[in-house]
Write a structure and sequence with these properties.
Elements lengths: L1 H34 L6 H31 L1
């Protein structure tokens, strides 16, 4: 059980890293566009960034739960 949990945690952490990198690129592009005077991109970028944040938070909760279950067994 512990080996399967560690494999799942490693996969979740890899996905978390990818999502955070995408979020950083999105925020950089949105800020650059906003400062260039294209104000219409700020709200959609903020909403997508919020959705990515919630996805990362969900993955964190999953990893935390998997870690607790692996340590218990």
């Amino acid at each position: 059980m512990r080996h399967r949990a560690l494999t799942a945690i490693n996969g979740a952490v890899a996905l978390l890293i990818i999502l955070l990198m995408v979020q950083m690129c999105l925020l950089t592009a949105a800020l650059e566009s906003f400062l260039a005077g294209h104000r219409e991109t700020a709200i959609p970028a903020a909403l997508i960034s919020g959705a990515l944040f919630l996805a990362c938070l969900g993955i964190y909760v999953l990893v935390d739960r998997l870690d607790r279950e692996a340590r218990k067994n």
